[in-house]
Specification:
By secondary structure, the protein is an alpha/beta fold. Helix content is 38%, strand content 20%. It is built from 16 helices and 20 strands. The protein has a seven-stranded mixed sheet with strand order 14-15-16-13-12-17-18, sandwiched between helices. It has a six-stranded mixed sheet with strand order 9-8-7-10-11-19, sandwiched between helices. The longest helix has 22 residues, at 98-119. The protein binds nicotinamide-adenine-dinucleotide.
Length: 482
């Protein structure tokens, strides 16, 4: 059955209540590749009702932990089975090169399910040494309840998996709402959860845009919102959740500094920073997005960086030789281009790129990777999240100024340090305010490592054991035996 144009509610594939639909485009060509149902408030209400009911259904609520673990493991196996199809769907819908879809998105999604399958039987409470006489106190880790999982368009499948797997591991029921630009792999994931044997209503998927997301966040019977997306929408979600004090975790924007110290291996730093800045054409929340280079190495670094990015093969994600795919949409490309123009207007020196790709690539959303030199801290390209292939290079005189400059931002998601000197690496790793600091490597997500940010980069941590904290409530049980 073609599930496009359908919502997944209570184990059934249904059209939107009012029949509304929207299309999703291939960013490499701009052509329509699918039609999806646009979930209305009535659909949101139905999905929340189904998730509420499933939460109390003994088929889920009383399922032994070992059986729940098997369901998660089974989803991982089904993702592996359908890896080729999922990777192609992700590439066509999102634009990322097929190799990235296979090795990062699809393999990552399967690993999240396997990692949390292992946790299901290890979510433990504790006996607390209370001083009240003749009393035993112990804690239970219980599901938070009905969770709305709202995802962005940059890594739709992997981000869905990094929320879905821990939410299910902890016994919650969920409504997943993928971004309107990239709904296709989330729909397939719902199919796989169904095939794995999750009881109806445990996993629901609603496609739709911001209005669908808003209706979910405002629904009084949703207990928790786990959101990954822009800081502005995250702020709105906090406000909307305040009415009934929903639990909220937020993974938001970033503007990761990458520091290239005087003693760095410049060739290795160029390779790592090209990967760190340009994976998925820079549409990565943890992408390295401002480069602080020791003044004595800045020319060498900039020259090699510009040569490396200019040599990257830009093209459709489905073409095997492609190293850099298109941006997700024309709207996003225009936003990136406007920020580049602002960089030029503010006096940054455009070393390479700076324009939409032409020729064969004209009909897709391709943007030439762009390097700016001579960037100053106060310039827009050094401060605002571009979320595209734009690399601003700044220089520094003295290491002592670095932590303050790196921390002069509202964000704090990721940071990188390139140095062979252990004391430089340790000092900066301690002083930079970011949820993850990478030394001599690009930013990578791994299910075992907590993910999230300081400041306007979000609230809470997902992945790792930390995700179990945000998808459970702790209940204390007191037993008097006097
Ligand atoms: P976005 O905030 O526009 O949209 C994200 C999701 O929220 C979409 O599903 C959208 O439909 C939904 N949405 C929009 N308005 C809503 C509302 N008022 N209420 C509820 N839901 C609403 O973000 P985007 O443009 O899809 O993604 C890009 C942003 O995501 C960037 O800022 C990036 O840094 C961030 N991001 C962060 C991480 C992380 O882990 N920190 C990972 C990926 C992307």
């Amino acid at each position: 059955m073609d599930v496009r144009g359908r919502l997944f509610i209570a184990g059934e594939w249904t059209a939107a209540a009012d029949g509304a639909e929207f299309t999703t485009l291939d960013p490499a060509t701009g052509s329509v590749i699918g039609t999806c149902a646009e979930a209305t408030e009535a659909d949101v209400d139905a999905a929340v009702g189904a998730a509420r009911q499933a939460l109390a259904d003994p088929a889920w609520a009383r399922l032994p932990a070992a059986e729940r673990a098997k369901l998660l493991w089974r989803v991982a196996e089904l993702i592996d089975r359908d890896a080729t199809l999922l990777a192609e769907l992700e590439t066509r819908d999102q634009g990322q090169p097929l190799g990235v879809a296979r090795t990062v998105s699809v393999a990552g999604a399967a690993e999240h399910f396997r990692y949390y399958a292992g946790w299901v039987t290890k979510i433990e409470g504790a006996v607390s040494p209370v001083s009240f006489p003749d009393t035993t106190h112990f804690t239970r880790r219980e599901p938070v309840g009905v969770c709305a999982l709202i995802t962005p368009w940059n890594f739709p499948l992997m981000i869905a998996a990094w929320k879905l797997a821990p939410a299910l591991a902890c016994g919650n029921t969920v409504i997943l709402k993928p971004a309107e630009q990239t709904p296709l792999t989330s729909l397939h994931l719902a199919r796989l959860c169904d095939e794995a044997g999750f009881p109806p209503g445990v996993v629901n998927v609603l496609t739709g845009g911001p209005a669908t997301g808003r209706a979910l966040v405002e629904h009084p019977r949703v207990d928790k919102v786990s959101f990954t997306g822009s800081t502005e929408v995250g702020q709105g979600i906090v406000r909307a959740s305040a009415n009934d004090l929903k639990r909220v975790t937020l993974e938001l924007g970033g503007k990761a500094p990458s520091i290239i110290a005087r003693d760095a291996d410049i060739d290795a730093a160029v390779r790592g920073n090209v990967q760190g800045a340009l994976l998925n054409s820079g549409q990565v929340c943890a992408a390295y997005a401002r480069f602080y280079v020791d003044r004595r190495r800045v020319e060498e670094f900039t020259e090699k960086l510009a040569a490396a990015v200019a040599a990257l093969r830009l093209g459709p994600g489905m073409a095997p030789e492609t190293e850099l795919g298109p941006l997700v949409s024309d709207e996003h490309l225009r936003r990136v281009d406007a920020m580049v123009k602002e960089g030029v207007a503010e006096g940054a020196e455009l070393v390479t790129g700076g324009a939409r790709a032409d020729g064969d690539l004209e009909s897709g959303h391709f943007y030439r990777p762009t390097v700016f030199a001579g960037v100053r801290d106060e310039m827009t390209v050094a401060r605002q999240e571009v979320f595209g292939p734009v690399l601003p290079v700044l220089s520094y005189e003295d290491e002592d100024e670095l932590a303050a400059r790196a921390n002069d931002t509202r964000y704090g998601l990721a940071a990188a340090i390139w140095s062979r000197d252990l004391s430089t690496a340790h000092r900066l790793a301690a002083d930079i305010r970011a949820g993850a600091v990478f030394v001599n490597m690009p930013p990578v997500p791994d299910p075992a490592a907590p993910w999230g940010g300081f400041g306007a980069s979000g609230w809470g941590r997902e992945m790792g054991a930390q995700a179990l904290d945000v998808f459970t409530e702790t209940k204390g049980v007191w037993m008097h035996h006097g």
